[in-house]
Specification:
Blueprint lengths: L18 E5 L2 E5 L2 E4 L6 H12 L3 E6 L4 E6 L10 E2 H9 L3 E6 L5 E7 L2 E10 L1 H13 L7 E3 L13 H4 L12 E2 L6 H6 L2 H45 L19 H13 L4 E2 L2 E8 L3 E7 L6 H8 L8 E3 L4 E7 L13 H13 L6 E4 L28 E10 L3 H4 L8 E11 L2 E13 L1
Parallel strand pairs: 2-6, 7-10
Antiparallel strand pairs: 1-2, 3-5, 4-5, 4-11, 7-8, 8-9, 12-13, 13-14, 13-19, 14-16, 15-16, 17-18, 18-20, 19-20
Length: 451
């Protein structure tokens, strides 16, 4: 049975709030505090003791042949009984030892890992693509678990099988064991009857309306404070990664939070040139470079073995290799950090396109350009009891236009981008393919200009 360390006698501690998402019309909760239950016959009593100690009052119980485990959460996070635990539901469908990332219907992503039937600590989380991709790499890179299966959508560039979470968690696949239940503390039922339960119920009905009103106000205030804190934190993170101090409007400009063309190319090629073109008899066949991750794929040749490759990769890569194609292909990832370009004044559309196209026309290259249609952010769900007339107005439409571009060439990127006007131009990905003894480059990015 898998085990997860418990803190004995510790004070309740602050934890990130749980996340709630909707799949096929059902509410699923992620971000539970998972703990092993060590008393097979008295595991509910043990769960209540842990919940009381940690200040958590809602629980999901995993009671299988391999493991007894409880995932705790607080109803203060907007969680209530009858919701489903996302990790428990996925574990019930996919088996006892696996790791996976899944795209959610709202555009966010979830990561879950299960070891011997138990949900792995830190592996029950919802976030955006980059956050979940990093968490997936960290969990896989720990090397403490040999996962039987890997699941990830194609945009993660992580290998494994892509699964549709709406198909996995359709209503016919769900059962009551995946739902959250309340933990009751204090008096037993007999003690409540002996001390006047009828009076308590009456008072509860009288106070329910007032408490609901106060809770709605508390949630609204907490949401406003949390949004302001996130804004401050994002701006501080941006300033820490750029050469010049940035103002708050930069957070609304996508080009402000991306590396500049030169910084991207230099950082990418620095790590690419530090990795061998062949590793223990496995030649490199392709590589992919993004702002936070360098990934390279090797193919087994002749009598080269998986064990030889693993040993050769250890001193060169921070993360363990992932094998596919029956052990004949291996992917290795290296986390990256790049300097961000920060905010800048954009040029008008005609000037931006003329400068961009002219640069590549000199070397007989025609970039593929496509306008990126603006998609407004999803409106947040209204809080219970919120006045619909007080809802915030939608954000203003952007005063810039965005194009995506793709460039394919045998000219190395460091030469190709020399002299390219960098204002409003960002590289987002470099793909390297090896054809015999020659390298072939695909550069992807974005061009921003004033409307």
């Amino acid at each position: 049975m898998a085990t997860i360390n418990q803190r004995v006698g510790a004070e309740p501690r602050s934890r990130p709030p749980a996340s709630v998402t909707t799949i096929n019309g059902q509410k699923f909760v992620s971000g539970l505090f998972w703990q092993a239950l060590t008393q097979p016959r008295g595991y509910m009593k043990e769960a209540k003791e842990i919940g009381k100690r940690e200040g958590l009052d809602i629980v999901a119980i995993r009671d299988t042949v391999e493991v007894k485990q409880a995932g705790f959460v607080s109803k203060a996070d907007g969680v209530y009984k009858g919701m489903y635990s996302l990790a428990a539901a996925l574990a019930g469908q996919l088996g006892d030892t696996w790791i996976g990332a899944f795209k959610l219907p709202d555009g966010q992503y979830a990561v879950v890992a299960v070891d011997g039937g138990a949900v792995v600590p830190g592996a029950d989380k919802i976030g955006d693509l980059e956050t979940i991709k990093k968490q997936l790499s960290r969990l896989f890179g720990r090397g403490t678990t040999s996962y039987k299966k890997i699941y990830a959508p194609e945009e993660m560039n992580f290998g494994g099988e892509a699964l549709d979470i709406e198909d996995l968690l359709k209503l016919s696949n769900l059962n009551k064991s995946y739902t959250l239940k309340p933990l009751t503390f204090g008096l037993t039922k007999k003690e409540w009857v002996g001390t006047g339960v009828a009076v308590a119920i009456l008072l509860t009905f009288i106070m329910a309306g007032w408490q609901w009103h106060l809770e709605s106000e508390r949630q609204a205030k907490a949401a406003r404070i949390h949004a302001a804190q996130l804004e401050v934190a994002r701006l501080a993170e941006l300033n820490a990664k750029t050469r010049a101090a940035q103002a708050a409007p930069a957070l609304k400009h996508p080009w402000a939070t991306q590396p500049g063309v030169g910084d991207f190319v230099i950082a990418c090629l620095k790590v690419a040139n530090s990795k061998p073109l062949s590793l223990a008899g496995w030649p490199a066949v392709s590589a992919n470079c993004k702002s936070d991750l360098y990934a390279v794929t090797y193919a087994r040749a002749r009598s080269a073995t998986v064990n030889q490759f693993i040993q050769a990769a250890k001193p060169l890569f921070d993360l363990a290799p992932a094998f596919t194609n029956g052990g004949d292909a291996a992917s290795l990832n290296q986390p990256l950090e790049m300097q961000l370009a920060g905010d800048e004044e954009l040029t008008d559309l005609d000037t931006a396109l003329a400068l961009f196209n002219s640069h590549f026309q000199q070397v007989l290259i025609k970039p593929e350009l496509a306008e990126v249609k603006y998609v407004p952010p999803a409106e947040p769900e209204a809080l219970p009891g919120a006045d619909p007339t007080q809802a915030l107005p939608p954000p203003p439409l952007p005063d810039w236009i965005e194009f995506s571009f793709t460039i394919e060439s045998r000219i190395p990127p460091e030469i190709l981008v020399q002299g390219l006007p960098g204002r409003g131009v960002r590289v987002t990905e470099i793909v390297i393919n090896r054809e015999a003894a020659e390298l072939f480059w695909t550069i992807k990015g974005a061009l921003y200009a004033k409307k």
